[in-house]
Amino acid sequence: MRIPKLAQFIIIVAVLYALLKAPGVFLGKPIPESLIFMYMVLVVATVLLVMTSTDESAEELFSPIRALVQDPKKAFARNIVFVIAPLVAGYIAYGLSSKGMEPPAELRSIHPAPLSKMAAYGKRFDMATLENPLRATETEDKEIFNAYVAEGAGIYFKNCFFCHGGKLDGRGHYAHALTPRPLPFKGRDTIAQLSESYVFWRVVKGGPGLPSEGGPADSSMPAWEDKLTEEEVWKVVLFLYDFTGNRPRERAREGK
Amino acid sequence: MTYRGWIIGGAFSLVTSILLSATALAFGDVGRGKAVYEKHCQYCHGRDGAGDGPAAGFLNPPPRDFTLGTYKWKTTPFDEMTPSDDDFVRMINGWASHNAVPGWDGLNDTSMPGWSDVIGDNDIKAVIAYLKNLSGLEAPVKPPIDMKAKVAPSKESIERGKKIFADVCSECHGDEGRGDGRKKLKDDWGARTWPRDLTKPWTFRAGSAPVDIYARVTVGIPGTQMPSFADPQSKKALSDEARWDVANYAASLVAPYKKPGEGTVIKAVKVEGALPDAPGAQWNRAAFESFYLAPQMIEGERLFTPTLNSVSVKALFNDTEIAFLVEWDDPTESVPGDESVMALSAGEVFLDKAAIEFPASLGRADERPYFGMGSDARPVDIWLWQNDGAVRSIRARGTASVEDGPDKVRAKGAYEKGAWRVVFKGALKREWKDGASEGIFVPVAFGLWDGSNGDKGAKHTMTGWNYFALNEGGGVSPYIWAIGAVVVVFILELLWFRGARRGRDR
Question: How confident is the model at residue B330 (pLDDT cuts 50, 70, 90)?
């Protein structure tokens, strides 16, 4: 059986729309509406272009619509469509215009590039070469390393845990009082993408120490430099990686 | 070995292995439980389960001490100490239904997260076995209470529950259930406890359905002053039906508007004429937006045992002024020197206070001041009200630099049955007024002090930055847009139809 052109058109568009919606419905990772809209404009335009490439196929595509209006035998169907179409348009217009006021979009970069030098603890750190001074113990003396991690855990659970959470998932007891929410350490999206010196910088300087593209005020993270010692911060950093099973990003070692 | 010897030997080893594996099944793998415990649980509950991990001193409520074997959230009867295994699973994994709402996924309003995504089905059995081992608990002798004999939450049941509540529950939970009782409470471990605010069921540790409340009323909350109302020895014992009634009533106390959502915008509503000085009908035009509170634990004296957990705010404005109605549940009206307040207080009584914070000037959206009282470069203005009637306007450039602010602020508060309602009024800043015709978002944050909880100075609860939105209402109503769209499409249809008919007639 041959599917009528108009039905083909509707099916193709519907299937592609469903495909674009699927990640949101099934995986909980929706494609932004604006992007879906752009894709759908392209889809409709392309399908129309293909289907109207010859006169016959264009005729076949549009004739059922024309018949609906012109063919007196289809008056009943026409009346139904003529009632439904304005109502659908009204519904869409209502939906678009009654959307609540949206707060200003956050245009910040969550992990902006660090400054090249950082002044803290009475010295200057060169961010390009800074390494975790305690990291070497991981291969040299596992016992000392484990002791550092345990100390880091103690520091985490006395200072960081209230917001970043017992599961290190960014959902501590008080996390949802803060905007934006604290970041998780679990998973592969945050510290796994960063070097230890970067994490060190973020802890030491906190939200107020972000460069302007990082939205320094769009963060509730305090600067910890006057609350934790340099060594304590490095121990917490060891703990964050160790507990979550993440590895710090290795610095590209060009020129070495 | 003889033929018979083989049979006896075989039977013996069969029986032994069955017994051994049954023991292993019944008690789980304690060693494996210990490994999971040491990875995930010890930082709060302590290496040996005594509730003394590194975080313990900072938690509110404190982490459970497993060596005593007292568990708060169980469904086995009041005279059975051991929770059922299902109770353990729920305590550890949390109430899955809460995953869908912003907030907590474990024991609500505590630091205990839900562990179902971390600890698998097998491991959780091992963890339970390990926990029981810490206090020598064995399998419960009595089965869980029967939770099926349900009395439907009908109007009559709720009405009956209301009377019972007034008689036996209101002393601690307050006349309207906001946790503003007349009794100072302590748990068996010596920690100050506050009765639950029943209008906020999302803070109930262990579920908020009538059946969950029924379980609490029937079993009690071991280790606390919440008794079992099924204990026939108790003077306050209630019949099974009465306990369902009171559970239905407690569940009916929910005040949904107090529940913080994902929203961050307080929509201020434009009114003609003067703004109200007090709560009242004029405020009905605006909707509450609610926010969670976090205790201040960054600068100066830090707070780890907050009594306030959310604040609800609405706003009205006219051509020159803006008014905020700030409402929050507070178990006590803190009047320093008042004896009844002293009797309830955890220590010295200070004033209750509320503060609203704005950027002193609006930069780009990504240039808000730091929410903790701003900085030298980006100061904030704060409107502060105290329950002794004092009102101040403050300009702060960080916590160390505070001076009188430029704003003229008036504020008036009233405390009623566990809730503060404070109306702040101040002039619209020029930037706000200029932006209002187009619609403008102004960052705003809130701070609250419960003086009976020792909140004072830096010790207080607060929100992060949110917004209030001013809009003169110049926009067209969505209904007009909808009607317009209907009319336009219908006219197009008619034109097409007429055109088609003309074409056919020709």
Answer: very high
CA-based nearest residue in chain B for residue A226: B299
ipTM of the predicted assembly exceeds 0.90: no
DSSP B243-289: HHHHHHHHHHT--GGGS--S--EEE-EE-SSPPPSSSSGGGGGS--E
Pairing state between β B461-462 and B294-295: antiparallel
Domain boundaries, chain A: 5-97, 117-244
| Domain B3-135 class, CATH top level | mainly alpha
Q: Are A89 and B489 in contact (CB under 8 A)?
A: yes
What does the alpha-carbon distance between residue B114 and residue B95 come to, in Å, rounded to a whole number? 8
**Separation of alpha carbons B497 and A27, rounded Å:** 45
Q: Does domain B259-475 have CATH number 2.60.40.1190?
A: yes
Tens digit of pLDDT for each residue in A196-222? 999 999 999 998 888 877 777 778 899
Helix (H/G/I), strand (E/B), else coil: B501: helix
CATH numeric code, A117-244 = 1.10.760.10
Contacts of B462 in chain A (CB under 8 A): 177
pLDDT at B19 over 70: no
CB-based contact B224:B72 (threshold 8 Å): yes
For residues B102 and B33, the answer to whether their CB atoms sit within 8 Å is no
> Is the Cβ pair A222, B298 closer than 8 Å?
yes
Residues of A in contact with B483 (CB under 8 A): 90
- Percent of chain A clearing pLDDT 70 (strictly above): 92
pTM to 2 decimal places: 0.81
Residue-level pLDDT at A255: 40
Two tokens, residue B329 = 């549940």
Task: Specify the CATH number for B155-252; select among 1.10.760.10, 3.40.50.150, 3.40.50.2020, 2.60.120.10.
Answer: 1.10.760.10
Of B113, B294, B482, the CB nearest to A174: B294
Do you know the residue count of chain B? 506
Q: What is the DSSP letter of B356?
A: E
What are A6-26's pLDDT values in tens digits?
888 999 999 999 999 888 777
